[in-house]
Amino acid sequence: MPYTPIVATLGYVLSPDGKQVLMIHRNARPNDLHLGKYNGLGGKMEPDEDILACMRREIREEAGIECDALHLRGTISWPGFGKHGEDWLAFVFVIDAWSGTPLTSNPEGTLEWVDVDRLLELPLWEGDKHFLPLVFDADPRAFHGVMPYKDGRMLSWNVSRV
């Protein structure tokens, strides 16, 4: 059976000095699968856009800013991650130049600047602690990982770099 995941973006907006990252604290919708957790910004790709257009649109919608420079850091396949066991495939970006004034909140929650070196202290998805160090490390190679989930729990993590 072919793998037909939901294709999405996940972006991490850096502060101008590169020491902080804009995170969403998902605290606005009681029925949110991510309720209480911190996450990067992003979402599902639309049929008429490429993955860069998707990332730019999601950052504009969720943070109210325009991406001036963004870099693909990797991809993650999340089989079984969705609320009803849907598979997800995300393209993970760092946005290190942007224009505008970031929103302080959106319909999903509060936007907060967090020190990059304190990210792993936040309430995150269990699996985020495995890939976030790869997003922010100095290795220029993209990472590509697969992280199966079942019933909201990470089962394993396999990653490679090219």
Describe the fold and architecture.
This protein has two helices and eleven strands, in the order βββαββββαββββ. It is mostly beta strands. It has one domain: Alpha-Beta Complex (Nucleoside Triphosphate Pyrophosphohydrolase). The strands form two sheets. Strands 1, 2, 3, 4, 5, 6, 7, 8 and 11 form a nine-stranded mixed sheet that branches. A two-stranded antiparallel sheet has the order 9-10. Strand 1 (6-14) and strand 2 (20-25) form a beta hairpin.
Please name the defining characteristics of this protein.
nine-stranded mixed beta sheet, two-stranded antiparallel ribbon, Nucleoside Triphosphate Pyrophosphohydrolase, about 160 residues, 11 strands
CATH superfamily: Nucleoside Triphosphate Pyrophosphohydrolase
User: What is the arithmetic mean of pLDDT?
Assistant: 95
Per the CATH scheme, the topology name is Nucleoside Triphosphate Pyrophosphohydrolase
Instruction: Give the amount of beta strand, in percent.
Output: 35-45%
In short:
Helices cover 14% and strands 39% of the residues.
Topology:
Elements: E1 6-14, E2 20-25, E3 38-39, H1 51-63, E4 66-78, E5 88-99, E6 105-106, E7 109-115, H2 128-136, E8 143-146, E9 149-150, E10 153-154, E11 158-161
Parallel strand pairs: 1-5, 4-8
Antiparallel strand pairs: 1-2, 2-3, 2-7, 4-5, 6-7, 8-11, 9-10
